[in-house]
Specification:
The protein has 294 residues and is of the alpha/beta class. It has eight helices and ten strands. The longest helix has 18 residues, at 247-264.
Length: 294
């Protein structure tokens, strides 16, 4: 159970077995799809041997023996299953206790993403992984309504230098262990900035074996170029469902997502956590396997 007691940050990676490296080219997001075959494996131990690097006060993921976090910590799934695939990430977790607790009880094949500002983050992570969910971290960045919407002291900003953003990123990365990547909010404008701001962040994430997840509406020419040059593992969400969406609208988005999955063979959805979203998601995902999705 997640309690209100403050947990301390882990300081050293204990020994744990490593898994053979898979191809860095994705056929589907390593995020879990909605259902998995019965013989799917379980989550690897956190942290894995050699996959943590200490820089000053920061504990950062690293690639070890060609093992990358997006592979090693992901929930296994069957990419060869011919059924239409639906991948789901619920973001904004850890800040509201009841909503976050209900999210951990969703189908374990749904990926959960936590705020790096979440109180008791390590307890949330332990509860999440105990239920079989892989997890990511929300990446705080400058958004379209900044500074009225404050992304907090760890945020990536265009009002500071690119060099000053790296310690901010390190604070985010050090907030937990065992995550597969970072999720960019849908109203981000940081990744619309110049190459001087974006490239160091993408290089850092790529060199640390992390995935970057963002909405397709955020895809811009410069970002596409940098994805190629930095070779970062990435995923583009087809749907970005904002906080506060009404149940009727959520259900319409889910129907639209099914249509995209049927047409394209797959769909990726980012959903910002809210009580209505969690409830609607729970009801929807129960029906997917019976209706031919995976």
């Amino acid at each position: 159970d997640v309690t209100d007691d403050t947990t301390t940050q882990a300081t050293k990676a204990p020994d744990a077995p490593l898994r053979d490296r898979a191809s860095k080219q994705l056929t589907l997001s390593p995020m879990a799809s909605v259902t998995l075959p019965d013989n799917a494996g379980t989550l690897n131990a956190v942290p894995a041997d050699g996959m943590i690097e200490t820089i000053g006060d920061y504990f950062l993921p690293k690639i070890a023996d060609n093992q990358e976090s997006w592979q090693h910590y992901s929930r296994p799934f069957n990419a060869k299953n011919p059924k239409a695939k639906i991948a789901i990430i619920v973001t904004g977790l850890g800040m509201i206790h009841e909503t976050s607790l209900r999210a951990t009880r969703l189908n374990p094949n749904i990926s959960l993403s936590f705020s790096p500002y979440a109180p008791n983050l390590q307890a949330w992570v332990a509860a999440t992984r105990a239920q079989g969910h892989e997890f990511l971290l929300d990446l705080p960045v400058e958004t379209s309504n900044y500074p009225f919407k404050d992304p907090g002291p760890k945020a990536l900003l265009t009002s500071i230098t690119p060099e000053e953003n790296i310690p901010h990123l390190y604070q985010v990365l050090s907030s937990s262990m065992g995550y597969v990547g970072l999720v960019v909010p849908g109203d981000d404008i940081f990744f619309s900035a110049s190459q001087d701001f974006i490239e160091p962040i993408m290089k850092e994430l790529s060199n640390r074996g992390l995935m970057l997840v963002f909405s397709k509406k955020q895809t811009r020419h410069l970002m596409i170029e940098l994805i190629d040059t930095t070779m970062i593992v990435h995923e583009q969400a087809d749907f970005d469902v904002p906080y506060g969406s009404l149940t009727e609208w959520l259900e319409a988005r889910f129907r639209a997502a099914e249509s995209v999955a049927i047409r394209n063979g797959r769909v990726v959805i980012i959903i910002q956590a809210s009580p209505a979203a969690i409830e609607s998601l729970a009801k929807w995902t129960v029906t997917l396997q019976k209706r031919g999705f995976t």
